[in-house]
Amino acid sequence: MSRERVVGEIVSKPRSRGRASSGAAQSVWLRQPPTPRNEPPLSRERITEAAVALLDEEGMERLTMRRLAERLGAGATTLYWHIDTKDDVIDLAIDAIFAEAPLPDPGTGSWQENVVALLSGCRDMLLRHPWSAALPLRQRPSIGPNFLAWLEFLQATLARAGFEGRQVQAACWVLYNHVQGSTASQSSLRWTSDERTAAQERLTLQKDRYPTLSTYEYMLDDDWEQNFRLGLKYLLDGLDAQLAPGA
């Protein structure tokens, strides 16, 4: 199920000109976009597209409002008219990439197959944007329309399967954390094959202390795809068991 990117929904409070004050809504999604003025044409859509491109090329640590303004061919003052903070930019960029995560057709396949398709598509999307590895470290919740549409599909799928109340929330977060943690680890770790081999040799020399890690060659395991899919199967099997009578 394809989706058009949505930018600028979920607004409930008026926006004051300039940067957010200490008493203003902290999320960009809870503030009104500014009214246009006679400046070089900028919009949330243009800013978001440029931010995603800059993040893809240079990563989260090099994103600054000045660099983003330069990429847009605008002054920093003009950019601040539209976006209050760097956190706002990241909020918009996160939501934009979630528009790339396809939503399966809920009318086909089992609930487990729908979850596998949903999380696999999300994993592919997150790996296309390696800077997303930093998302678990952020202290701001994602409440943009594209992310919420993705999360709505996941929770609706779990509810249709028969989960209720707290079960839906718990199952939702264990599945989301699996895909987020898996992709964050894969995007963040940068080991060469020589480094892996050297680390495993060191483990082997300490086999008495780390017998299991040595035996199963922990340091040499880099099959991220298989580990993700097998781990997801274990989670889904466990969740399915909770739906059995008397569970």
From TrEMBL:
Residues 1-43 are annotated as: Disordered. The keyword Hydrolase does not apply. It comes from the Bacteria. Keywords: DNA-binding, Repressor, Transcription, Transcription regulation. Pfam families: TetR_C_1, TetR_N. Residues 41-101 form the HTH tetR-type domain. SUPFAM superfamilies: Homeodomain-like, Tetracyclin repressor-like, C-terminal domain. Gene3D superfamilies: Tetracycline Repressor, domain 2. PANTHER family: HTH-TYPE TRANSCRIPTIONAL REGULATOR RUTR (PTHR30055), TRANSCRIPTIONAL REGULATORY PROTEIN (PTHR30055:SF151). This is TetR family transcriptional regulator. It comes from Streptomyces cadmiisoli.
